[in-house]
């Protein structure tokens, strides 16, 4: 037999008035479709578990959200969009939910996946960061000043990028040359691009 967590009762009691019937309905559908489900709070929102994470719900100021841990395996292409967490979009009333039999079917599918030990799909790895392209004129100017070059190479990628962008965004050749000279001077002194605003 499943369990109910009193913290979820408290969460629902504090939710905006429009959200309470939505949260209460979702809770009952989950328990009805998976009587063994256990409730808990994770990341300050109600979660339902059965042999691992099953689904979760949340209330916000103007909408609710509901979703399955293995969303794409449970709901497939029937997702309502990505304008809210979960797979059902921004829920503002009970009418925004799928019919109870459809919703219960999703819960039973999520339970089946957990019963069979199916893992959630791996998230796509973030694209590798590209190496910062240092313009030829800056590179040449740094090569001519070992102290400036040492500072530039020691800086984090974000600090190097600030100098590169400052120089490449110059509108005229004269401005670019002036910025190059200033950059080399500051770097030779160990200064970041925005050194004037750094706290001592």
How does this structure look, described?
- The protein is 45% helix and 11% strand.
- The protein has 2 domains: 6-115, Aspartate Aminotransferase, domain 1 (Alpha-Beta Complex), CATH 3.90.1150.200; 136-197, no CATH class.
- The protein has helices at residues 6-14, 19-33, 71-75, 100-115, 136-143, 146-154, 157-168, 173-188, and strands at 38-42, 45-49, 53-59, 64-68.
- It has 200 residues and is an alpha+beta fold.
* Helix-strand sequence: HHEEEEHHHHHH
Our measurement of the CA-to-CA distance between the termini, rounded to an integer number of angstroms, reads: 61 Å
Report the sheet with the most strands, covering strand number, pairing sense and barrel closure. Answer: 4 strands, antiparallel
Strand order, largest beta sheet = 1-2-3-4
Q: Tell me the β content.
A: 5-15%
Oligomeric form of this entry? single chain
pLDDT below 50 for ≥5 consecutive residues: which ranges?
A: none
Please, how many helices? 8
Radius of gyration: 27 Å
Mean pLDDT: 82
CATH architecture group name of the largest domain: Alpha-Beta Complex
Shape: elongated
**Structural class category:** alpha+beta
- CATH class membership of the largest domain: Alpha Beta
């Amino acid at each position: 037999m499943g369990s109910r967590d009193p913290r979820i009762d408290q969460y629902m009691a504090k939710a905006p008035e429009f959200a309470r019937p939505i949260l209460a309905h979702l809770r009952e559908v989950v328990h009805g479709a998976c009587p063994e489900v256990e409730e808990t709070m994770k990341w300050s929102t109600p979660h339902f578990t059965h042999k691992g994470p099953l689904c979760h719900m949340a209330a916000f100021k103007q909408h609710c959200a509901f979703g399955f841990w293995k969303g794409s395996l449970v709901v497939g292409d029937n997702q309502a969009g990505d304008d809210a967490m979960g797979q059902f979009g921004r829920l503002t009333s009970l009418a925004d939910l799928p019919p109870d039999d459809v919703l219960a079917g999703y819960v039973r599918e999520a339970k089946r996946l957990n019963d069979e030990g199916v893992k959630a799909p791996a998230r796509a790895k973030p694209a590798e960061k590209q190496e910062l392209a240092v313009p030829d004129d800056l590179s040449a100017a740094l090569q001519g000043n070992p102290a400036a070059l040492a500072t530039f190479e020691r800086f984090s990628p974000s600090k190097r990028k600030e100098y590169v962008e400052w120089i490449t965004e110059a509108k005229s050749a004269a401005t670019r040359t002036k910025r190059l000279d200033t950059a080399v001077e500051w770097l030779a002194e160990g200064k970041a691009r925005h050194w004037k605003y750094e706290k001592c």
